[in-house]
Amino acid sequence: MQKLSVREARLESAIGQQARLQGWVRTRRDSKGGFSFIEINDGTCLANIQVIADAALPNYEDEVRHLTAGCSVTIDGEVKASGGKGQATELHAAAVTVHGLADPESYPLQKKRHSMEKLREWAHLRPRTNTFGAVMRVRNQVCRSVHDFFQEDGFLYLNTPIITASDCEGAGEMFRVTTLDPADPPRNDQGAVDYTQDFFDRPSFLTVSGQLEGEVYATALGKVYTFGPTFRAENSNTSRHLAEFWMVEPEVAFNDLEDNMDLAERFLKRVVTDVLENCEEDLDFFEQRIDKEVRERLGKIVAGGFARTTYTDAIAALESSGEAFEFPVSWGVDLQAEHERYLAEKLHGRPVIVHDYPATIKPFYMRVNDDGRTVRAMDVLAPGVGEIIGGSQREERLDVLESRMSEQGLNPDDYWWYLDLRRYGTVPHAGFGLGLERMVQFVTGMANIRDVIPFPRTPGNAEF
Amino acid sequence: MQKLSVREARLESAIGQQARLQGWVRTRRDSKGGFSFIEINDGTCLANIQVIADAALPNYEDEVRHLTAGCSVTIDGEVKASGGKGQATELHAAAVTVHGLADPESYPLQKKRHSMEKLREWAHLRPRTNTFGAVMRVRNQVCRSVHDFFQEDGFLYLNTPIITASDCEGAGEMFRVTTLDPADPPRNDQGAVDYTQDFFDRPSFLTVSGQLEGEVYATALGKVYTFGPTFRAENSNTSRHLAEFWMVEPEVAFNDLEDNMDLAERFLKRVVTDVLENCEEDLDFFEQRIDKEVRERLGKIVAGGFARTTYTDAIAALESSGEAFEFPVSWGVDLQAEHERYLAEKLHGRPVIVHDYPATIKPFYMRVNDDGRTVRAMDVLAPGVGEIIGGSQREERLDVLESRMSEQGLNPDDYWWYLDLRRYGTVPHAGFGLGLERMVQFVTGMANIRDVIPFPRTPGNAEF
């Protein structure tokens, strides 16, 4: 008997096939005519398939009529055309095998709707709901597009280290990684914790970014991208922050900021195009149940070119906008969410790339412009969400990089290997970072970032 | 001017094109005829392109004649047919721009060969060598094939958590993740470290496997695979162990052990086939410089079906082999490397899957057979390397799983969510794990696992 997924069995082309379907019961309804309708889902698509189980089945009274939400079944039967609404096919069961029951007295996922907060407590069961199945399929599509885009363009996938002894990248608070006994760590002569006895012989942490190591490989092999977990030990309980999240970071030798903006724009368009083309059913769901503007927002990404403006021009536009901003605007300040939204939503009505920011508000590794006071930074701001990509052309001049480090109070000795990239065969290069979960929020409309990652890690939460 | 990569410019089809090439100098040789030969590499392939730079170039004396290994250049010119050995094309330079020099007095990567140990100290420069460029391209191909294989087969890519509060999976020693001050951690009334004040309000660790969480998603959405970093805090200084490595773990609902073996075999064949087809030049290099048997070994993976044998039969074969093993063999012992190699290399002469191992030497989650003393485990043993994949059908029966936990001294309460998967709609399911770096060792012949990951983490090593 050929196995078919629910997605396959729902296609008209499956009509007439003898098939085996395996999945979980969503609902059962008994007809007075002596048969039952059972809705089965197997995760391959949002929709269920309707199974017609006749009373003549040998286990009809004992098992079929006791099926409830969450029970697992194998059904052998024939795919037939269906007269039902919203379905081309249905499965007429010749045999129903029940693998596992789900006691309706205790199984949490009953028909009533549960809050997202409640579902987070059941992170091991929530993928069985429509919402989280859809999130997972869209997340998978985004990940697949990320790899396809870069691979087709000749980028090499790079795994930068997760554990690092560099605690000095300045991107945020870090988690310590250790095998020392916290109750009684070894001490040195001065009474301080003796990290030379820790696993890596030194203080070690979870990475906040793979960029610096990405530059190592870009300046050897040309085009690389990372796609891995990164960490922030910040006590942020917001709908936009996770302690553990996945990041995509391309880095390209010989690219300048213009190339970098072009790459970011092509990349975003590709991911969104793939989601629009391949996740139609799930997008319908998000549009109806989660965020009615999701398709409109995605349409703006693929419709035309992104606007581009210097930070200096953006500040001027904000100053003359006549808007009453909560945070006042002037040259030198960082843009707040309200400013980003004004630029993307009101002023341009489409994604906008702001570039060439004041050096004082950006990290040491960004390339200094000839004016001496701006650097080749860029942020991609999307309507509805604000910043979605941040990147820059990197400083490739050894002397400028060293003085920027000193300005920011960093010790160049800690970066000897990073400086070597400028010492030996230095090249212009550029890259950017995209937070996967923020991208999934963007394409699904899910309000809380904890609901677009399988097992969210936030202050106080590391179960499962 | 159109940018071409070295790989593109080496194609015959590029002849006649005006092109811009960007990369790093490998060698320069000056001819008496008044021009120089410069070999350029950009990481897109193992081979260099030869550039002919004429003395008529305005910066010939000042710059071109000073180029040394590691210098970075942009070259505009015309691709012409080459009479040189091993190259169809060469580039005749119309302009040479030098971006960065690499002082031959201090640049470590001079023409002489360096030991692998030495190159590990220069992990930021080693990707500029032939060996590590080739490793990186092959590693990229393996990663790409992993994603392609599963995506084309309808699997969903799953990111299981890196930080976990489960310290009880029994797969190995774990790293602690903490934001407490190790010099002076908060204490509770009993004087013990008060982990309720740690970032996650409890002791937290780096994951050793995503399997249990993979089962959560497989038993909701059918077919999933993880591909992410995993960790072992073991003090193993061997050529086969890393503290941080990448693992691929598929998990499939409704699969039994037979299905699992079929999947593992198809998967390995696909990855190896892709490497053989797409990495020909790099494989030539590995065959000539690193391991002359590498192609033969890969041929055995794709040539025919894998052998399959029960553990019980394998033990019988080992006992009657007449071989003088260092570790004696009898039913109930775990197989040692020497046994695995005998089975794969001598007895079967091809990959062999050993299955149905004694319950006593396998973890609690593997499905118990009707004999009560074996479990549905499987290991794929490859000629030349031994175990490359380990997996099992999982125990889906709640009562059996609980008693296996008790047998192994585990507290079922710690696994409430894992047990819920059996409590509600349980299904047969199976999966396996493949260590990425061991796979890259297998397809390249690289002797030390530290040389197939960009920045290896081992006891005492976490720089870069």
TrEMBL record, chains A, B:
It comes from the Bacteria. Pfam families: tRNA-synt_2, tRNA_anti-codon. CDD domains: AsxRS_core, EcAsnRS_like_N. Its main location: cytoplasm. Keywords: Aminoacyl-tRNA synthetase, ATP-binding, Cytoplasm, Ligase, Nucleotide-binding, Protein biosynthesis. It catalyses: tRNA(Asn) + L-asparagine + ATP = L-asparaginyl-tRNA(Asn) + AMP + diphosphate + H(+). GO terms for molecular function: asparagine-tRNA ligase activity; ATP binding; nucleic acid binding. Its EC number is 6.1.1.22. Residues 136-454 form the Aminoacyl-transfer RNA synthetases class-II family profile domain. GO terms for biological process: asparaginyl-tRNA aminoacylation. HAMAP family: Asn_tRNA_synth. NCBIfam families: asnS, PRK03932.1. This is Asparagine--tRNA ligase. It comes from Posidoniimonas polymericola. The lineage of its organism: Bacteria, Pseudomonadati, Planctomycetota, Planctomycetia, Pirellulales. The gene is asnS.
